[in-house]
Amino acid sequence: MGKRGIQLFDDKGGSFLSISGLGSSPWSQEEDVGQCFPGGAGGLFASVNQMGMGSNGNGGGGIKSVYNDLYEKYLSFVGVNGEEEREMGKKKKRKGWLQLKIKVRNPSLRRLISGGIAGAVSRTAVAPLETIRTHLMVGSSGHSSSEVFQNIMQHDGWTGLFRGNLVNVIRVAPSKAIELFAYDTVNKKLSAAPGEQPKLPIPASLVAGACAGVTSTLCTYPLELVKTRLTIQRGVYKGILDAFMKIMSEEGPGELYRGLAPSLIGVVPYAATNYFAYDSLRKAYRKLAKQEKIGNIETLLIGSAAGAISSSATFPLEVARKHMQVGALSGRQVYRDVLHALASILEKEGVKGLYKGLGPSCMKLVPAAGISFMCYEACKRILVEGDQEA
């Protein structure tokens, strides 16, 4: 159907108002709207062609001026395009939020800083649960979470729940920085671009996670051992340096790496499972939600789920590692290797002994993993290169 219009006065005879397209549903197509209602004004004042009474345009200036004034006063505000209005609203909304941006040009430094902050924040938040978990693993203050908690409160008070946390932060901050940096770096190199064949027969996140765990463990293991000693041996050491010096002088430098084998054996499946689960859950969320960006709450939940999966799968190795780190303290048995530790624990305490402390461990590791991933992703958005997001 052709476009129909209404004209008041013939164009040849000096018309002053024409309304076109009334018979063709002008709202159905953008070009109709543009032709019928220039400037997006809408309403009846669709287009003003000529406001004069004569063909030469003379003698009609007064009427033209009146209509222009009415148009500008009542209808010109509608002339803003809808997309422009939305953009203006978005800009106003963005300005209303406080957005912190710190320029760090080196991408490797951005990852290291983000990982360090993530590790420090997450570990401090769950320090009491970490203390209870460590006591439960070695059976030094009770056989349940409530017994350990009451024992700590009775002897040390609230500060006892954070015993060794400074060492933990000093250890975890660089450890997490190295771990997340190694994971991001290796994963990006091994991951195939969209449309390309995978570079490895197994998921890249598995290999990247294992490499990240091994690298961080080798670099920061002595701090982990000192932290465990400070948590368990009350009043034996005055601080971090005193613990290092006494262990070095009384037990030798090799004591700082006691339990390294089970740690390496345990960290490979743990880190590989953790990062693989995290990467897989993020991809699944993007597919289900049909959006590329993932918010902080979603990252927290995804990271927590990944921590629960990896922690449950590798917990017996963690128990063996803790037993080996404690060493011959208070007449405890000294284990030759991880298999000897696992076999001895299984013989004395059964299967339950291999999972002693799993509850508080998950209570600690699950939120710690979620907080760590959330802080890491948030810090990467804060630390930017120029005007681009990290």
From TrEMBL:
- Specify the signal sequence span: none
Where does it mainly reside? Answer: mitochondrion
A biological process term (GO) from this entry? transmembrane transport
Q: Where in the cell is it found?
A: Mitochondrion inner membrane; Plastid, Chloroplast inner membrane
InterPro entries linked to this entry:
MCP, MCP_dom_sf, MCP_transmembrane
Record keyword Zinc present? no
**What's the domain of life for this entry?**
Eukaryota
- Please give the coiled-coil regions recorded for this protein: none
Would I find DNA-binding among this entry's keywords?
A: no
Q: Which Gene3D superfamilies does the annotation name?
A: Mitochondrial carrier domain (1.50.40.10)
Name the family the entry cites. Belongs to the mitochondrial carrier (TC 2.A.29) family.
Stored PANTHER family: SOLUTE CARRIER FAMILY 25
This protein is called what? Uncharacterized protein
Organism this protein belongs to = Linum trigynum
